[in-house]
Amino acid sequence: MPYSAPVPSRPVQAETAAARAVGLSKIYGHGETQVVALDNVSVDFGRGRFTAIMGPSGSGKSTLMHCVSGLDTFSSGSARIGETELGSLKDKQLTRLRRDKIGFVFQAFNLLPTLTALENITLPMDIAGRTADTQWLDTVVNMLGLSGRLKHRPSELSGGQQQRVAVARALASSPEIMFGDEPTGNLDSRSSTELLGFLRASVRELGQTVVMVTHDPVAASYADRVIFLADGRIVDEMFRPTADGVLNLMKSFDTKSRVS
Ligand code: ADP
Questions:
Q1: Which residue, by CA, sits nearest to atom 25 of ligand 1?
Q2: How far is the CA of 56 from the centre of ligand 1 (A)?
Q3: Which residue has the least CA distance to atom 10 on ligand 1?
Q4: Model confidence, pTM
Q5: 3-state DSSP call for residue 56?
């Protein structure tokens, strides 16, 4: 019988993936109230890349981010950060993995009001008993334009500055990957443009890996690659996206879903 190569069970370019989902499914509820939030999703998030996850509300964007980053459990399949399989980790191990290897930025800035910007930035490392690499911290703080603001408390900072502090906090430990869930959702358009520019610079200039959930085509256009979700499945992807290109693709999904 002729030899046939085994079908690869992992997506190509596996060696460069900072995070990966293979056949990932997430089902909420049971019986009639069951919701399939993720339906057999396989995707690689390339190291040193900026990836945006787009899709209409309810398409599974946040669920995908939460399952791949260890914030939520999944029903079946596999999710990895680097070479670490999340499904096999206990709660404490997951907490440690999130703390040591992952940076998070959410729509809400989640800064502690009584601490200065610098204290907020180093807090996760302080809690972990780790010392910040001052050279790296300086680089991050300078890139984010925060050097003159480090002694200010959050109430003395604009929304855009507070979110930049949150990004600096996420990057302070030079994480394996940084996840953003609608990080520009609470910002005006100028601060949003600035923040997206900083996220892109953290990838291009500092070699970080960013995965960002967004519903905004302009935000997605800052990424190197956009993956599109609909009904819990990846339905398309775009490299070197433009805002118009993303918008047109989203409109075509709307039309298809109305026709079907
Ligand atoms: P998106 O981020 O694209 O708006 P989500 O990932 O939040 O979408 O949600 C995907 C689907 O899963 C939606 O149908 C949503 O209603 C459902 N869902 C999300 N969280 C829960 C939950 N805790 N319990 C039940 N259903 C949920």
A1: 28
A2: 11
A3: 60
A4: 0.90
A5: coil
For residue 15, name the pLDDT band (cuts at 50, 70, 90). Answer: low
Mean pLDDT of 138-143: 92
Residue 13 pLDDT more than 50? Answer: no
Atom of ligand 1 nearest to the CA of 63: 6
Burial class (CB in 10 A: 0-12, 13-18, 19+), 210: buried
For ligand 1, the distance from its centroid to the CA atom of residue 237, given in whole angstroms, is 21
Residue 128, pLDDT score: 86
Q: How many CA atoms lie within 13 A of 182 on its CB side?
A: 13
pLDDT in tens, 192-251: 999 999 999 999 998 999 999 999 999 999 999 999 999 999 999 999 999 999 999 888
Ligand 1 centre and the CA of 35: distance in Å?
8
pLDDT at 259 over 90: no
**Cβ neighbours, 10 Å, residue 234:** 21
Cα 14 to Cα 18, 45, 61, 79, 108, distances in angstroms? 9, 9, 22, 13, 33
Q: List the residue whose alpha carbon is closest to atom 11 of ligand 1.
A: 37
**Which atom, in ligand 1's list, is nearest to the CA of 65?**
6
- Name the token pair of 23: 């056949």
